[in-house]
Amino acid sequence: MDSTEFRKRGMEMVEYICTYLETLNERRVTPSVEPGYLRHLLPSEAPHEPEDWDQIMSDVEDKIMPGVTHWQHPRFHAYFPAGNSFPSILGDMLGDGIGCIGFSWAASPACTELETIVLDWLGKAIGLPDHFLALKEGSTGGGVIQTSASECVLVTMLAARAQALKRLKAQHPFVEEGHLLCKLMAYCSKEAHSCVEKAAMICFVKLRILEPDENASLRGQTIYEAMEEDELQGLVPFFVSTTLGTTGSCAFDNLPEIGKQLERFPGVWLHVDAAYAGNSFICPELKPLLKGIEYADSFNTNPNKWLLTNFDCSTLWVRDRIRLTSALVVDPLYLKHGYSDAAIDYRHWGVPLSRRFRSLKLWFVLRSYGISGLQHYIRHHIKLAKRFEELVLKDKRFEICNQVKLGLVCFRLKGSDKLNEKLLSIINESGKLHMVPASVNDRYIIRFCAVAQNATAEDIDYAWDIIVDFANELLEKEQH
Ligand code: PLP
């Protein structure tokens, strides 16, 4: 494809994307295909000869689209949102066009510097303390874009592990590191995302999963008692991962209490995972949810969830960038450059060497919407969630199972877990609406998340009508 054809095909692609997004509500939300469906539609080998672009695009519509789950559909209410907006898509397009690999400052200075500036912008808008900002006088911290929240948790745990091992090695210089490693203990709540467990597996450290309170919030006293007990057993607490906005029910760990208790355990790294909820802290009225952040060593949120930015764009801030990078620095001669001491080299801030120009899309989003536009978008979703909550509360056959603070409503039919499993299964099978379950306080609940960028009150009412229709049908059948 030469640039003349790219111009033509590019315009056609923009047209295709616009039409796709504008007519999404005519499609099923979820596909009705079986595993392996695509193998029967595509050849088993790549074509030897070049193929015609029109043929490729016609296969997109006929073969790919039938297997797509439409995350931007107005009646997709599963998981947390997958951020999407035209400025963000254009940012990714430009980044792909430039095609630089910004592993160091020298590898593409703008790629590094824009990331640092945009992370400071967003950090300030969220209300992070100054020590998390890279360009603040005297600050030792800074922000970085990672691929996912899972990666943010992993790299902070790796950094905390390296710090803990260094301290232990200084106290016990003749003990092998492998022996010290098996003493390390990390902590999180039962409601934390499974990525904490995965990080502990990768880091080869023990993880103690603690019981939250009745509001799915991890409390300071629980952490304190667990850590004290473990210390008495000769173990070494080194990392606590807290969550602001849990995946199951958007609950908030009690960060002020946990931070206060951790003062009794110097050197323990406190991480805050706010993958979804963190974006909402750009609204002044929601900043109280960030209380206790002054105790944290690191904080992550995903603009690619709730800030109109396409995947991947997971932002991580650390209080002390040297403590992060010292766990990850490997410096072969071919990657060194003349400004290695003065500039940020983001390859030391994460696992991969190669990095895309991801800050472009976030920069485009922040500038195109402005903080006020993004606040409006967040508030709109919260309003829709509140509307849905009211609809549920009006029907006495249902109950609400979480404190609806942001865009997620957890609800269930009063009755058994089995009944609710059935309800969710028939709704999802219909393809009219998509929601997913979670287990909160050991009960099966259904999650309804306001997700679509332009969802309206009518979309919410329509979704509720669908749920009620299926519930009527199910309850009637159950009675016979
Ligand atoms: N943490 C929380 C609180 C989440 O809700 C999620 C996903 O929804 C994750 C971590 C994992 O996010 P990612 O897919 O970016 O790794």
UniProtKB/TrEMBL annotation:
<keyword id="KW-0456">Lyase</keyword>
<dbReference type="GO" id="GO:0045475">
    <property type="term" value="P:locomotor rhythm"/>
</dbReference>
<keyword id="KW-0663">Pyridoxal phosphate</keyword>
<dbReference type="GO" id="GO:0048148">
    <property type="term" value="P:behavioral response to cocaine"/>
</dbReference>
<dbReference type="GO" id="GO:0006520">
    <property type="term" value="P:amino acid metabolic process"/>
</dbReference>
<comment type="similarity">
    <text>Belongs to the group II decarboxylase family.</text>
</comment>
<keyword id="KW-0210">Decarboxylase</keyword>
<dbReference type="GO" id="GO:0030170">
    <property type="term" value="F:pyridoxal phosphate binding"/>
</dbReference>
<dbReference type="GO" id="GO:0016831">
    <property type="term" value="F:carboxy-lyase activity"/>
</dbReference>
<dbReference type="GO" id="GO:0018991">
    <property type="term" value="P:egg-laying behavior"/>
</dbReference>
<dbReference type="GO" id="GO:0019752">
    <property type="term" value="P:carboxylic acid metabolic process"/>
</dbReference>
<feature type="modified residue" description="N6-(pyridoxal phosphate)lysine">
    <location>
        <position position="305"/>
    </location>
</feature>
<protein>
    <submittedName>
        <fullName>GL10988</fullName>
    </submittedName>
</protein>
<dbReference type="GO" id="GO:0005737">
    <property type="term" value="C:cytoplasm"/>
</dbReference>
